[in-house]
Write a sequence for this structure.
């Protein structure tokens, strides 16, 4: 197992270096002079320009600049935002819990609904339930979620007036930021209605973000279940008179879950892409909206480091998924 | 020993074999009702796109200043000249939607073409030569795949500058590793076959081996992936348009139309509903087709 983990880790090194190269060259190939960009509209004198260039290291060869960049990263220095002047890492850490909260809720909804639907559809293959649920799943899979979010806002916020349109919690409540997760913090604060407010803000964005993963998980669970139920050991279990519930619950489901867990893990990339759209629609103060705002404000240090941090994060989560996969499936581990 | 009359060998011409394969393909494809429905909708979309100038009742960018945010014809206050209503500057929704089909299909075709050609060439090189060529190419693909696709596309567009062309290039770059991976895997399994060795012994050069001998036998998974990428391209380009990074106004692109409609969502449902519905229907139709193609082309899945 240790060898398996080490080999996976080693495999990541070139990919990580590749990510840093992409993030580094992103700012270098941008049209325009980075110093002029930083100086803003007022511009700079030639002397000041040379001074700033030297200060930022832009006068050195590109390769040297890259290694400087890498060195700073290793020390946890991700640069400062041009707009707020704050360190990018600090901003990332402040906004990150909001995205995690949204993403976790979405993946929980997607799993809790998607897996049972997939299992049921597989068991009752060809039934009306199977057909309707799989058609719905395909519609969900094809959904432009930015439009879906707007529709939900029209219906639940506009017509029914049940949910708020944007933000994480009503402005009426103010409490200290303990964990960064609004649901937990609002409970800890003990204020009446705070938790309900947090939930009502969270529910629509999580449904929107859950839509595509839910469809993917339901489809994947169904096909994994169908495959497993055709296996010899399931037939054997049936033949020796095991109750169907136990055959499905123990023999089939457990084995079918292996590819499904991978699928769930791989949704993290989908979730990050979805978070950009979802957070924009619901003005959710997370990483996705931060990236979009930074791109439109041309806040390049933020875009550069944000891109790097998000990619590294996705990579680490994928690694964890891979390791879990090895943990539950010895055949992979010992290959 | 008894005399057995030699069975006459029936030689089929290439064209006949192709016809048979096509018939077999159609047989399997037809069994999937969803796929046939998807194909029908897709053909309809193509027709709408091609005949847009004839079908659209108005110019898609013409602003009727006396008809701002007119509701659809069946609703109170609607006018029969504007069947699906007008947007905030008085442009006819129906005409814009019809012209929008052109953009979506065009984007899908261009993105898939670039991603397919690029990915197939890289995958062929990696799978055919192996060794360090393979390592270098596949590591680069891994790096691209490490980024969430929409995010990388967004950043690429930020570098290249917002606009439809750059959005298409960015999306194609992001999609191309999928094709490279598929091609590489298929090529690697084909390379072990005897017919490849035979062709090599017969004196076929590298290029001929790659493109004429091996590639045609790797097409099935690529066709399925191309269909899936087509629908994702329509979706992602609409998302980029929605975020202001794709086609720029006043282009009647569906995602861009949604972006312009955002501020009116609580006042004029039609400006939001129809463009999204158009995106959903097109993407759904293509995905249905993709499911059918996969069933018909992938022998492993034919049974299930």
């Amino acid at each position: 197992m240790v060898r398996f983990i080490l080999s996976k880790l080693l495999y990541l090194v070139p990919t990580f270096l590749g990510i840093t190269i992409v993030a580094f060259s992103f700012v270098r190939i941008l049209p325009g002079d980075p110093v002029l960009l930083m100086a803003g509209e007022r511009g700079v004198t030639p002397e000041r320009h040379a001074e700033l260039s030297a200060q930022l290291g832009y006068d050195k060869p590109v390769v040297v600049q890259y290694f400087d960049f890498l060195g700073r990263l290793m020390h946890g220095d991700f640069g400062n935002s041009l707009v707020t002047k704050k360190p990018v890492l600090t901003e990332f850490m402040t906004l990150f819990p909001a995205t995690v909260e949204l993403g976790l809720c979405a993946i929980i909804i997607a799993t809790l609904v998607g897996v049972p639907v997939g299992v049921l559809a597989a068991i009752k293959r060809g039934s009306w339930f199977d057909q309707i649920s799989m058609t719905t799943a395909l519609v969900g899979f094809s959904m432009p979620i930015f439009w879906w979010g707007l529709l939900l806002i029209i219906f639940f916020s506009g017509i029914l007036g049940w949910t708020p349109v944007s933000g994480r919690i009503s402005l009426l409540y103010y409490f200290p930021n303990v964990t960064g997760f609004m649901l937990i913090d609002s409970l800890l604060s003990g204020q009446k209605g705070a938790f309900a407010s947090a939930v009502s803000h969270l529910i629509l964005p999580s449904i929107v973000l859950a839509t595509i993963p839910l469809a993917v998980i339901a489809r994947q669970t169904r096909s994994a279940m169908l495959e497993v139920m055709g296996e010899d050991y399931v037939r054997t279990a049936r033949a020796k008179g095991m109750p169907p519930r136990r055959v499905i619950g123990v023999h089939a489901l457990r084995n079918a879950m292996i590819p499904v867990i991978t699928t769930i893990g791989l949704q993290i990339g989908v979730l990050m892409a979805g978070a950009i759209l979802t957070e924009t629609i619901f003005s959710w103060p997370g990483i996705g909206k931060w990236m979009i705002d930074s791109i439109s404000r041309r806040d390049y240090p933020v875009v550069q480091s944000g891109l790097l941090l998000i990619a590294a994060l996705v990579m680490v989560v994928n690694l964890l998924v891979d390791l879990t996969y090895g943990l539950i499936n010895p055949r992979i581990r010992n290959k | 020993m008894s005399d057995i009359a030699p069975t006459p060998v029936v030689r089929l011409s290439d064209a006949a074999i192709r016809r048979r394969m096509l018939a077999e393909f159609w047989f399997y494809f037809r069994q999937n009702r969803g796929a046939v429905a998807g194909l029908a909708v897709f053909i309809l979309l193509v027709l709408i796109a091609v005949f847009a100038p004839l079908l659209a009742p108005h110019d898609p960018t013409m602003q009727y200043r006396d008809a701002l945010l007119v509701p659809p014809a069946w609703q109170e206050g609607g006018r029969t000249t504007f069947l699906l209503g007008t947007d905030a500057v008085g442009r006819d929704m129906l005409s814009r939607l019809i012209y929008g089909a052109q953009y979506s299909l065009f984007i899908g075709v261009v993105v898939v073409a670039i991603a397919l050609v690029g990915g197939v060439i890289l995958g062929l090189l990696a799978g055919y030569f192996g060794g360090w060529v393979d390592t270098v190419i596949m590591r680069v693909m891994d790096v691209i795949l490490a980024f969430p696709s929409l995010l990388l596309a967004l950043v690429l567009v930020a570098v290249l500058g917002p606009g439809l062309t750059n959005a298409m290039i960015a999306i194609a770059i992001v999609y191309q590793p999928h094709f490279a991976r598929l091609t590489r895997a298929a090529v690697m399994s084909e390379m072990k076959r005897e017919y490849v060795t035979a062709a090599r012994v017969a004196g076929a050069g590298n290029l001929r081996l790659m493109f004429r001998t091996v590639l045609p036998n790797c097409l099935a998974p690529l066709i399925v992936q191309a269909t899936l990428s087509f629908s994702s391209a329509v979706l992602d380009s609409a998302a980029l348009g929605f975020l202001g990074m794709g086609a720029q106004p006043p282009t009647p692109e569906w995602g861009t139309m949604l972006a312009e409609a955002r501020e009116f969502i609580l006042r004029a449902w039609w400006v939001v509903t129809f463009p999204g519905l158009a995106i959903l229907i097109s993407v759904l139709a293509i995905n249905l087709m993709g499911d059918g193609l996969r069933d018909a082309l992938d022998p492993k899945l034919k049974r299930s």
